[in-house]
Amino acid sequence: RVLIIGAAGQLGSELTQALANMYGGDQVIATDINPRSLEKFDYCKSQVLDVMDQSSLKKLVQKENVKHIYHLAAVLSATGEKNPLFAWGLNMDSLLFVLELAKEEKLDKIYWPSSIAVFGPNTPKINTPQFCVKEPNTVYGISKQAGERWCEYYFQKFGVDVRSLRYPGLIGYKSLPGGGTTDYAVDIYHKAIAGKHFVSFLKEDTLLPMMYMPDAIKATLDLMHAPKEQVKIRSSYNLAAMSFSPKEIFESIKAHYPNFTISYEPDFRQAIADSWPDSIDDSRAREDWGWNHQYDLQKMTVDILEHLPTYSF
Ligand code: VAH
């Protein structure tokens, strides 16, 4: 069976559906700490799980004969800065336990998301390479960098088949904006279809690597189903699709909503965004296991504006 930890999150909400479509709902167990959030998982098995509750997690893995774990639970960048030690504890202790569990229970595969947040202010900003200086200055980024080191360690030392992607900002319409610095790009669509003015917490020219959720789901499943020998990088793969700024995404929406308006009020999240790259070189993912993105900004905007107005949360 396939276990998703943090299934009700932005990535989990869509990845769980994709995994159930692939393996059948009875083979997928969606878990999250928030009981109410599990109501939407009527197409697969679901159960409340606090990822920090290690004995419950171990019992669940044994009882349900889990062979794959997608560990998606984490505190994101902006929220993490408000509660650094809690964010570090949750992000790190939970990963270490999942890796140890994979080793002890001889699980087949583990998936754990990393992020462009592993890059810091002195990382090359344009076409950021797969291997480069990484001095992240957010708790979230520090936890993702440390997590990458642990993933590679458990693969090399114990043969745990853990795989990972450094996601850019993920944009989707099936979950509400969360605690991410890139979540302005989710919120902007909600404001547009509600006929409201949008206040951007990032400056208009803040370029960030971004990806539409269907591309992120495809990359995740492509990586997890690639033959083992093709997965040559066991820290985490750079992954990219597009880069845009608040002004550019606003313009792409305004083409469909001519009366839409924006203003810019940068806050603490500007410094986080400024510490991240403008664009990412993901040639290794494309070479090693055939990654290829489908969505650019215009195509994403058309798809979101088509679906969001009638999507029920
Ligand atoms: C965040 N959405 O903003 C996440 C992501 C690259 C950004 O890691 O924290």
Brief summary:
The protein has 313 residues and is of the alpha/beta class. 41% of the residues lie in helices and 15% in strands.
Looking at how many chains there are and whether they match, the oligomeric state comes to single chain
Give the % helix.
Answer: 40-55%
Overall outline: globular
Number of helical regions: 11
Please tell me the overall pLDDT.
97
Number of beta strands: 14
Indicate the proportion of strand residues.
5-15%
Reported for the largest beta sheet, the result is: 6 strands, parallel
Strand pairing plus helix content: what structural class?
alpha/beta
Instruction: Tell me the Rg in angstroms.
Output: 19 Å
What is the terminal-to-terminal distance? 27 Å
Strand line-up of the largest beta sheet: 3-2-1-4-5-7
Ligand names = (3R)-3-hydroxy-L-norvaline
Organism: Shivajiella indica
Family: Belongs to the NAD(P)-dependent epimerase/dehydratase family.
Domain NAD-dependent epimerase/dehydratase: 2-239
Protein name: NAD-dependent epimerase/dehydratase family protein
How would you describe what is shown here?
The model has no long low-confidence stretch (mean pLDDT 97). The protein has 11 helices and 14 strands. A 6-stranded parallel sheet has the order 3-2-1-4-5-7, sandwiched between helices. Strands 6-8-12 form a 3-stranded parallel sheet. The two termini are 27 Å apart. It is of the alpha/beta class and 313 residues long. Helices cover 41% and strands 15% of the residues. The radius of gyration is 19 Å and the shape is globular. The longest helix has 21 residues, at 84-104. Helix 1 (10-23) links the parallel strand 1 and strand 2 (28-32). The structure holds (3R)-3-hydroxy-L-norvaline. (3R)-3-hydroxy-L-norvaline binds next to strand 9.
